[in-house]
Amino acid sequence: MMPFSLEEYQDRLRKTKASMQKMGIDVLLITDPANMNYLSGYDGWSFYVDQMLIVIADEEEPIWIGRKMDANAAIATTWLKPQHVLYYPEDHIHSTVKHPMDYIASVLKDFRQAERRIGVEMASYYFSALAYVKLKENLPNAKFQDASLLVNWVRIVKSEQEIEYIRRAATIAGLGMETAVAMIQEGTRECDAAAAIFKSLVTGTDSYGGDYPSIVPLLPAGKNTSTPHLTWTDRKYSRNEIVIIELAGCHQRYHAPMARTVSLGKPSEEVMDVSNILVEGLNAALELIKPGVTLEEVEYAWNRVISKHGIVKESRLGYPIGIGYPPDWGEHTASIRKGDGTVLEPNMAFHMIPGLWFDDYGIEISETFRVTEDGCEVLTDFQRGLIVKDQFHIAM
Amino acid sequence: MMPFSLEEYQDRLRKTKASMQKMGIDVLLITDPANMNYLSGYDGWSFYVDQMLIVIADEEEPIWIGRKMDANAAIATTWLKPQHVLYYPEDHIHSTVKHPMDYIASVLKDFRQAERRIGVEMASYYFSALAYVKLKENLPNAKFQDASLLVNWVRIVKSEQEIEYIRRAATIAGLGMETAVAMIQEGTRECDAAAAIFKSLVTGTDSYGGDYPSIVPLLPAGKNTSTPHLTWTDRKYSRNEIVIIELAGCHQRYHAPMARTVSLGKPSEEVMDVSNILVEGLNAALELIKPGVTLEEVEYAWNRVISKHGIVKESRLGYPIGIGYPPDWGEHTASIRKGDGTVLEPNMAFHMIPGLWFDDYGIEISETFRVTEDGCEVLTDFQRGLIVKDQFHIAM
Question: Which residues in chain B have Cβ-Cβ distances shorter than 8 Å to A148?
């Protein structure tokens, strides 16, 4: 029933505890849903209320604490013993007097963890400033320490089974992109294109279904391609505009993102040129990928190409991907950019996204890849270049 | 182009400033994307990085600060002057040495706001514990104050235009539910049902398109109906199981949620009985809705019905809805529950969700309603009751 073997979860937990020991952390309070899933298997859309997975250095099994109605979801989706699934009283939800962290602190006291060194994910979306303040108030003798990316760094090298799920996600991403390219045309409403893309992404293939991606399809069009994170409206596509599609396939919460740019009608010379430069740079960067290379070296290969053509890109070229929950599919650890000395290892997986955004248009063409034993395997599979659609044919 | 008139945005801002004054707040730092949208119109999937809208009591127009690549999205979607759209340098993204709040603090200093009383949304998903600590470190002379629900409370009474968008969202929710009921049957994969539901929700109607709901369709099935927040897998529905569908239509970021429960095959007597009790209680609560009634009175009407039948529900009966971004479509202010003395006013809008979850099954049948001048208008429109599907017909 579970997506990974018990051994794999326990191996992840072992690595997490090793990092805790290195950082001098006795108790790790995990609130990032991707990290909770990674270690326990927990999977439910309940991260909009306070919940956490507690890893205690000298306890074999973690403890899940959340809302009562979600406890059965923890029993259904994790490998934890039912007695390791706890819940706080319902009157702690959206209350002005009680906070879930009051209860969680009392549990930590009961388990005699209240005076230890406690790691918290200070940068997690689901550990609010208020949660932190409440926890500190309740545990005045604990020593708090930021452990924001502790589990994320454990996640950066994938197992074979994880790569298999990303591979499936990449296949699904390709199906979604095929649908997008077919749907986006003059006179079609943006929402109808988005609807069809969602259908492809969630259907998946006959052999495996799609899960919800952490980010909805991003579909800036026309002048709005100058910015990457706009979604869709119900306006209709018009002749002679370009449309960016950034989407991800998702399977078992593993993501494979991909971006392409479609030109409705003949593109301007500038758009064509920039697209070609972008692909040249993307290829140069992908060619460099292999174990032992650093991320800043990869960025340099890209940057050398674009700067030769007088183009500057300030934003990073990519980031590691894997398990994700809204609002992001990136792992927030390494970045493919200047100054990042992270060394590539086999089975690291990244989204390399050389987006270029100018004042009145932008181009994105991206790939998801993994590092192999001696090179690079691009997992997404779709014609790499500007996709030109005119009335009569699609040129890819 | 914008979903509301400039006057409506300015009226919202005026009310927000009045609340700020009452709470003694000079500067309000808004990080909740729904609140940012409400006041400025900002709409983009960029809330996964730090960004905010700054409202200064004695400045006419708010300031948007975010990532450089998202600044054009702010110019495209807000009514703010371009010079009120600022951005922090790209090297502040996922950096271990620089934090966006360092930059934002420097802007507040430049604007001479560094020693004032600053309200922050301590409970916002998008104001991390780290962001709070960084901001405080950078602004040691400011007085910080929790203003978590300040704008949310302004949002609780809707304008006619807002109600119109919720009405459209409710129509879309009905289309999504129709698709769900049609798709969910023995032998169909859960992911295929989810894919078809997404397509309906995002397509919308011929007159207006659907936007992405803040929560994906929740689809617990079989024993997993004992917990409400599970999504879908690629298993196939089997004969004689029940399936809960909770979804929302969304238009212009306004939501209308709705839940129904489908029984594949003849339901057990218990499931039938509990469904009928639930609807009896839901009707009793809806009948009470009118201006002047308190939320705890509404809950009491519901509770009297279920306790008569020996059923206990600890969780609240509902919450206000409106603009939403992942991970939640609730407004986090009032709750329909014991002890909540909030008094109903015309054009408040709620999701009333009498979910009942037991050890091995659960039932949800819910409605979105608005308070009228003298009563209640249920906006969602779908047969209110357990939906029984057998091989030959759908009984609703």
Answer: 130
- Tens-place pLDDT, residues B3-60: 999 999 999 999 999 999 999 999 999 999 999 999 999 999 999 999 999 999 999 9
Q: Does residue A1 form part of some domain?
A: no
Same domain, B147 and B165: no
CATH of the domain at A328: 3.90.230.10
| Domain shared by A138 and A168, yes or no | no
Query: Is the CB of residue B251 less than 8 Å from the CB of residue B204?
Result: yes
Question: CA-CA distance, B110 to A190, in Å (whole number)?
Answer: 41
Q: Is A282 in the same domain as A205? A: yes
Residue after which a domain boundary falls, among A106, A126, A155: A155
Comparing CA positions, the residue from A278, A228, A281 lying closest to residue A385 is: A278
Mutate to test the interface with B, among A32, A68, A97, A125 (most CBs of B within 10 A): A125
Report the alpha-carbon distance of residue A275 to residue A358 in Å, rounded.
Answer: 13
- pTM listed for this prediction: 0.97
- What CA–CA distance (Å, rounded) separates B39 from B373? 26
Reduced to 3 states (helix: H, G, I; strand: E, B; else coil), residue A155 is helix
Nearest CA in chain A to B197: A199
Distance from CA of A276 to the nearest CA of B (A): 21
Residues of chain B positioned with their CB less than 8 A from the CB of A93: 315-316, 335
Q: Please state, in angstroms and rounded to a whole number, the distance separating the CA atoms of residues A21 and B250.
A: 46
Beginning with the edge strand found earlier in the chain, give each strand of the sheet holding A117-120 in spatial order.
Answer: A85-88, A63-67, A52-56, A27-30, A117-120, A143-146
Range of the domain at B18: 6-155
Q: Which chain B residues are Cβ-neighbours of A364 within 8 angstroms?
A: none
pLDDT of res. B396? 59
ipTM of the predicted assembly exceeds 0.95: yes
Residues of chain B contacting residue A211, judged by C-beta atoms under 8 Å apart: 191, 231-232
Residues of B in contact with A229 (CB under 8 A): 44-46, 69-70, 73
Interface test with A, best of B199, B233, B331, B336 (most A CBs within 10 A): B199
Examine the domain organization and report whether A36 and A145 are in the same domain.
yes
What total of structural domains would you count in chain A? Answer: 2
Q: Are residues A77 and A188 in the same domain?
A: no
pLDDT digits (tens, 9 = 90+) for B124-133: 999 999 999 9
Residue finishing a domain among A130, A155, A180: A155
Question: Does residue A165 sit in the same domain as residue A205?
Answer: yes
Q: Are B362 and B300 within one domain?
A: yes
Q: How far is A124 from chain B (nearest CA, A)?
A: 6
* Chain B interface disruption, residue of A72, A91, A133, A171, most B CBs within 10 A: A72
Kindly report the nearest CA distance between residue A30 and chain B, in angstroms.
13
Q: How far apart are CA A330 and CA B138, in angstroms?
A: 28
Cα dihedral across residues A120, A126, A129, A134: positive or negative: negative
Q: Are residues B103 and B169 in the same domain?
A: no
